[in-house]
Design brief:
About 40% of the residues lie in helices and about 15% in strands. The strands form four sheets. It has a seven-stranded mixed sheet, with helices on both faces. The chain has a three-stranded antiparallel sheet with strand order 7-6-13, with no helix packed on it. A three-stranded antiparallel sheet has the order 12-14-15, with no helix packed on it. The longest helix has 18 residues, at about 265-280. It folds into two domains: about 5-260, 3-Layer(aba) Sandwich (Aspartate Aminotransferase, domain 2); about 265-385, Alpha-Beta Complex (Aspartate Aminotransferase, domain 1). With about 400 residues, the protein is an alpha/beta fold. Bound molecules: pyridoxal-5'-phosphate.
Length: about 400
């Protein structure tokens, strides 16, 4: 049987040739391919600065450090995300909390955010940083979150791991109009891939410098940043802070630059598939993600929420029946605070009721560039069989 995954990369012959060229070049890392990739993404998004990393997770960590997140600080994110959106705060010794989702868009609810901020202002426990996550490729209500940031004094990191190529109010996600930093992931299931890889974008030159410094051990070779020394030194660099090796290789960056040329085509195809599903699934007892007219989703995922009572099957039964049909649906995501590691920190059921309801129903059906019309029809037929009336 033909197994259809929920997502996968698409590599063209040109993408492969771009990597082969680097393998034959002088530099396979720390050469010109990384800055070229950084420029291509920043240029596309309309951000002033971009810092490529070896994953979105390291870009999130660097972003928290650049915003001076440390022990005693509080960071808030959405419970419906990959664990990395929360772990980045913990790496810095800060504490993490979660703002419940909006049941329609499935993104962080700005109503819940505002209520939680009002309460936190009374107890003196306001967050230093809020990390909205653009679930499935749809931007959060960034104008509102930005306005709340000004009122309550928090900084904003957009976790746009799903959302490169998406738009908010007719502008590309990643331009940082409403945030301090935006991060992207280039993992193979995401829209554009470099194998492993990530990027942080910002319009603030000081943040860009802080991101770059800690991406590479806290080492600088900029004379202005170095301490003066008593005699002439042979060493042309100094470590001036504690950093990491979070660099992207030129091999990965060459693939990224080549993939960026196909971004619009990737997102157009994903939207085409989404329109097909919208039409074909219209009469099934499911709820799909509501898309705000301010947003153009890049459709990293296509989320469905089967109406379990009406169907008379459990979430697990539907998941297993679809797998038996060769449709490898997935679940994005379990509320992060229900992970055992977070439960040990004191989180428990009931913390974000909408997120928990969502988790009890949601499935991601296959959505990727190379998904053929035949396969899309196979997905629809399986859904009709498993949850149709
Ligand atoms: C994939 C993902 C990440 C982590 O990306 P990596 O590049 O694998 O580190 C972070 N946040 C979200 C929302 C993601 O989907």
């Amino acid at each position: 049987m033909d197994m259809i995954p929920y997502g996968r990369q698409d590599l063209s012959e040109e993408d492969i040739q771009a990597v082969v060229e680097i393998l034959r070049a002088d530099y396979i890392t720390q050469g010109p391919a990384v800055p070229a990739f950084e420029e291509s993404v920043a240029g596309y998004c309309g951000a002033r600065h971009s810092v490529a990393t070896n994953s979105a997770t390291s870009a999130l960590h660097l972003s928290c450090l650049a915003l001076d997140v440390g022990p005693g600080d509080i960071v808030w994110t959405s419970p419906i995300t990959f664990v990395a959106s929360a772990n980045c705060a913990l790496y810095c010794g800060a504490s993490i909390d979660f703002v419940d989702i909006d049941p329609l868009s499935c993104n962080m609810s700005t109503t819940r955010l505002e209520e939680k901020l009002e309460a936190a202002a009374r107890t003196g426990k306001l967050p230093k940083v809020v990390i909205p996550v653009h679930l499935a490729g749809q931007s959060c209500d960034m104008a509102k979150i930005h306005e709340l940031g000004r009122i309550y004094g928090f900084r904003i990191i957009e976790d746009a791991s799903h959302a490169i190529g998406g738009k908010y109010r007719n502008e590309p996600v990643g331009n940082c109009r409403y945030s301090d930093i935006t991060i992207f992931s280039f993992h193979p299931v995401k829209i554009v891939t470099t194998g492993e890889g990530g990027m942080a974008l910002t319009n603030d030159p000081d943040l860009a410098r802080a991101l770059r410094l800690r991406r590479s051990h806290g080492i600088t070779s900029d004379r202005e940043e170095m301490s003066p020394r008593p005699c002439d030194e042979i060493w042309n660099y100094q470590q001036i802070d504690l950093g990491f090796n979070y660099r992207m290789t030129d091999i990965a960056a060459a693939l990224g630059t080549s993939q960026m040329k196909r971004l619009e085509e990737f997102v157009a195809r994903r939207n085409e598939i989404a329109r097909f599903y919208d039409g074909a699934l219209r009469n099934l007892p499911i709820v799909t993600q509501w898309l705000h007219p301010d947003c153009h989703s890049s459709h990293h995922l296509y989320l469905i929420r089967p109406k379990l009572q009406e169907i008379g099957k459990t979430h697990r039964e539907i998941y297993q029946a679809l797998h038996a049909e060769g449709i490898l649906v997935n679940l994005h995501y379990i509320p992060v605070y229900l992970q055992p590691y977070f439960e040990k920190m004191g989180f428990s059921r009931g913390h974000c009721p909408e997120a928990e309801r969502y988790y009890g129903e949601v499935l991601s059906i296959p959505m990727y560039y190379g998904l053929t019309r035949d396969q899309q029809e196979q997905v629809v037929a399986a859904l009709q069989k498993v949850i149709g009336r």
